[in-house]
Amino acid sequence: MEKTPADAVVTVRNYYKSLPERMAAVRARAARPLTLAEKILFAHKADLAAGLPERGQTTVGLHPDRVAMQDATAQMAILQFMTAGKSEAAVPTTVHCDHLIRAKVGAIKDLEVAESTNKEVYDFLASASARYGMGFWKPGSGIIHQVILEHYAFPGGLIIGTDSHTPNAGGLGMLAIGVGGADAVDVMVGMPWELLWPKLVGVRLTGKLSGWTSGKDVILKLAGMLTVAGGTNKIIEYFGDGTASLSCTAKATVTNMGAELGATTSVFPFDKRMADYLRATGRAEIASLASSLAEHLTADAEVLAHPEKHYDEIVEIDLSQLEPHVVGPHTPDLARPVSRMTADVHAHDYPAGLTATLIGSCTNSSYEDIGRAAHVARQAKARGLKARVPLMVTPGSEQVRATIERDGLLADLEAIGATVLANACGPCIGQWERSDVAKGEKNSILTSYNRNFPKRNDGNPSTHAFIASPEVVVAYALTGRLDSDPIHEGVIFDGNLLKLEAPSAAELPLKGFDAGRDGYVAPAEQAGSASVTVNPKSERLALLEPFEPVDKVAGYQNLPVLLKARGKCTTDHISPAGPWLKFRGHLDRISDNMFSGAENAFTDKPGTGFNVLTGQAGEELQKIARAYKAGGLGWVAVGDRNYGEGSSREHAAMSPRYLGCRVVLVRSFARIHETNLKKQGVLPLTFADPADYERIRRDDRLAILGLDKLTPGQKIEVKIAHADGSQERFYALHSLTSDQIAWFQAGSALNLIRTQQSR
Ligand code: F3S
């Protein structure tokens, strides 16, 4: 049986020991019945004595129990962490190599290729993990969320992970929240992590799952009901008798895909099926402790008796009535039952012939999932029937892979033609080297993954990706067509009909899990002893130099305006992803993309600007910024409303800071980006009068006054010197707290931590 790393068990033991006392303090403070999500949030609140937070309004500091990072996002997070001067991560942290493995021919070969092409990244992550006391999961060991569920998740805990599907651990009763790298760095250096206190959606499950219906159908149905925006700034909390009808891993599928609704996270109450999963994954002690603390790991009885008083909205799903669903294309909220699929395909002219079917990923590769899919495959095998289209299987972890291999489930799938891919994200994150369909060719695929927006799986905007449960996907692999209903009508082959029996499978392996190949490297006994490996010639990685503090008077005079962003300027306009992602560990290289998607009011072509030093218009903004920087000149970026909306990517704040940005002055900010700018030492300002945006001309110089005596809430005077010799003044506002002013004075939040460290 697989053994969970010892440090993980110690963390949970300590947490549970203090839980009754923590909850007593929480109850005294809140003085009202609490939902499960509230219990967990309050128990991790940095300042419990502060005023009670208002849902959807108050931002609070929290102390998570753990941090998990995947290999793509971990690079810059660790590079930043290293500049803070800490000897080890302040909370237990793990790194998981799952995103960089391309799927092409099959598990063994694909893994070998990944190990050589990504060697410098893996060497860096492994050596930094050893140096700073973090657990390291090698390529091939599994997908971050599955590994977290198997080893680290625990009921009542709080984890942040640098990946959107971190909420997967909500299936084990944990609040698990996907964040950007900058948030992970905060927690790793010991700072409280900030969260907008969420609103709560209560989902009452009644009835029982049966037949073809699975956990996947619960979330596909809910996506159809709430839509992709239905969970924004909300936690989805499940309750009701029906919750017991889902296995722990089925619950994880549901919470995993809460991310598709934009939810902060999703969570299920602790129950026996979670305890069973904990025992099966080698954590009997945690199962017993959680069982003895169940009152703190579920919502209060009063909440369950009158949910309408305690959740902001309530949705009800009767599992007994729920049908298996298919969602898509292009969005997960386009949901319909399988029985309506054929009509929908014809009505919307979706490509009816499937070109590929894929099961597994972090969302749906549990022992139970693969067992149910294999049951469908066995029925086909018994009749000599094979999948009519390629069928690929992505196991979520080495433990799952080894166990399903030992128990013959992989063989069942291979017998109908399935290809087994590496235990990694692969086609789920577009790492699919597909040669059977040309770019631009219209085609349909069906997966049991979680995301299906255009290009997500194979980079082809014309691929129509649909999503269903693994067992439904395998059934469709047998017909090869979306305009069919293999569940109700069976599969026709050679003039015969195969009526498929509803799938059934064991929830957990009767013989226990087989750990497979060991892919885990424990944190070094003595953090600080290993050296960190970065190839100085690398194009993908470069160590970071701390950002120099800027003189608060001289450094904010005579600043040219690099960009006056017109209309929408998201983090994707500021720091586009796509091909640039391979440089995410190399700040200088990735900064070549800075503002390349931004519409500049001063030029006609996105990403270009006016160089005040040469008088030339139309040069790339990053080149102009580099020229200013070389001349010791800081600069200002001006923006419109909701500047920096989109992802929480820290590069959108780091690249401007690196290339000399002093101030970002906008009509309004997206909150997370504004905080990221503050962390990096860039001053975010908003126009006191939004109309002042119009005053800014392309050859202006700006002076920001009074920064040497900056205080919270102070109005900031801005002086514009126009090129014609005229001058104007206006006011701007800032939202820095006194702690954040200290970041600004130090040049960045991490600089401040480093100086505190060395005192
Ligand atoms: Fe993300 Fe990998 Fe899952 S790409 S959705 S973590 S399989």
Protein topology:
Elements: H1 6-30, H2 36-43, E1 59-62, E2 66-70, H3 71-82, E3 93-96, H4 107-117, H5 119-131, E4 135-137, H6 144-151, E5 158-161, E6 175-178, H7 181-188, E7 193-196, E8 199-206, H8 215-226, E9 234-239, H9 248-256, E10 265-267, H10 272-280, H11 284-292, H12 301-305, H13 307-310, E11 313-318, E12 325-327, E13 335-337, H14 341-348, E14 354-360, H15 367-382, E15 391-394, H16 398-406, H17 409-415, E16 419-420, E17 443-447, E18 463-467, H18 470-479, E19 491-493, E20 496-498, E21 520-521, E22 559-564, H19 571-574, H20 587-590, E23 608-611, E24 616-620, H21 621-630, E25 635-639, H22 651-658, E26 661-666, H23 671-680, E27 683-687, E28 701-705, E29 715-721, E30 727-733, H24 738-746, H25 749-758
Parallel strand pairs: 2-3, 2-5, 3-4, 5-6, 8-9, 8-11, 9-10, 14-15, 14-17, 15-16, 17-18, 22-25, 25-26, 26-27
Antiparallel strand pairs: 1-7, 4-21, 12-13, 19-20, 22-28, 23-24, 27-30, 28-29, 29-30
Helix pairs in contact: 1-11, 3-5, 3-7, 8-9, 10-11, 15-17, 15-18, 22-23, 24-25
This protein binds FE3-S4 cluster.
